[in-house]
Fold this protein.
Amino acid sequence: MTVRGVERLSPRMARVTLAGPELRGLTVEQPAASVRVLLPSPGERELVVPSWNGNEFLLPDGTRPPIRTFTPCRCDPEALELDIHVVLHGAGAASQWAGAAEPGQPAAVSGPGRGYVVDGDAAAFLLAGDETAIPAMGQLLEAIPAQAQVRVLVEVGRPDARLELTDRPRTSLQWCDLPPGATPGDSLVAAVGDAELVPGTRVWAAGEAAAVQRIRRHLFENLGLPRGQASVRGYWKHGRSGDSDPGA
Ligand SMILES: Cc1cc2nc3c(=O)[nH]c(=O)nc-3n(C[C@H](O)[C@H](O)[C@H](O)COP(=O)(O)OP(=O)(O)OC[C@H]3O[C@@H](n4cnc5c(N)ncnc54)[C@H](O)[C@@H]3O)c2cc1C
């Protein structure tokens, strides 16, 4: 499959449309699911398909291929198109690819991986995430029943990373600006710590791995939230390339 088009949703987010017959049969049933995208190695135009050595995928030269995880956004089985929204954070294979992608460039996709099962009976939800979680949170806001109360906390690295996320009723949206130089996740962790959770609230959180670990501790150790009421997922790891979530 190839890149069909690229559009800037904000200075920090690109929508990349992938298209090709390989997308036949790809269906995404749940919100906040995942797909894994194989990219050309940096500086290359051709896509080299890696082989599985029983433990990991490797390229013929023994290096690890750039495979990154994204939220499948629009998935059109007729047009055989798939959109992913990629944060343009700077020096990363996917970020650089999305920032410079041109129609016709090759890519490959596998998946989908599991998404989130929305409890249709829950009266309240807390959604917390950073910029990488904006695509998933948009889908969750559409999937959560209209009668539920939803609190949304989104950490952004810069104010112009804000995107239109929802006009859903019974929803409060709070953008949490990360001060320059602060550790990713600090503002989100603080906002989650301040959030009041009514009994029975379902929590979905995703973002930087160490930050979501702090959120996990707050929810389970400080608040004693039953584990079944929360889904907390590391989406990337500060200072490390690749996925932080082996289950993605
Ligand atoms: C289930 C799941 C769904 C995801 N959905 C999305 C999605 O829809 N959109 C999206 O953009 N990302 C999403 N991610 C996160 C994405 O996979 C990672 O951010 C990935 O590391 C980006 O790859 P890269 O090649 O750009 O950077 P990498 O090569 O992985 O990392 C290079 C450097 O950049 C840093 N870095 C990586 N990501 C970020 C970031 N977002 N902000 C600041 N620094 C960063 C790393 O710590 C490292 O130091 C998802 C992850 C998972 C597990």
